[in-house]
């Protein structure tokens, strides 16, 4: 729906408008699912010997009644802001990788698509990781948890968290934990991008636009501007026109 808002009269969308649409989509998804992210962080940082929460539902109930509804959205600001460099970085890198490979995107192999996804995710995660660091600290900090959630700095808000982290840990402290994060997200996005491209080829093949799901070689004589339903109707009409009609005597 967001992509449609940024398309022109011909249905085309520029790279930067696509980045804006992707960033907005990431923000909407972040806000919609954010309470579950807070609960996940609390379950991770709690003391296992004397746990504060017994499970997901208990954590949701306890956080809501002890700290209020806004506690379930603590740290949402850096999460939303971090969606912008992540979406922009990943998309910008991904659409420019064809210049590195020196061949069009349609000729990429599954391995190339996997590498492209990995590189895009690595750059995007590195750019947005300071926001991820601040978000986790804000999620974990709570007066109801032992040692205030075991956060290494104490702060009053997002800007203060940035300031206190840089003051106590240095600028590189904003990137603490980047390596394990990359080990998780890089192969994830590599598999996601390569799977997406392969599924797209399968769909194009099943609808008759290309000759094989293993490449993008166009099917001869097929108008690529037709929609799948229009293409099926055209094939059906051609089939009916070419089939020999039965005579009245045969009927």
TrEMBL record:
Record carries keyword RNA-binding: no
Pfam annotation, one family: Mito_carr
Mapped Solcar repeat ranges: 13-100, 108-202
PROSITE patterns: SOLCAR
Record bears the keyword Transport: yes
GO biological process: transmembrane transport
Record's protein name: Solute carrier family 25 member 43
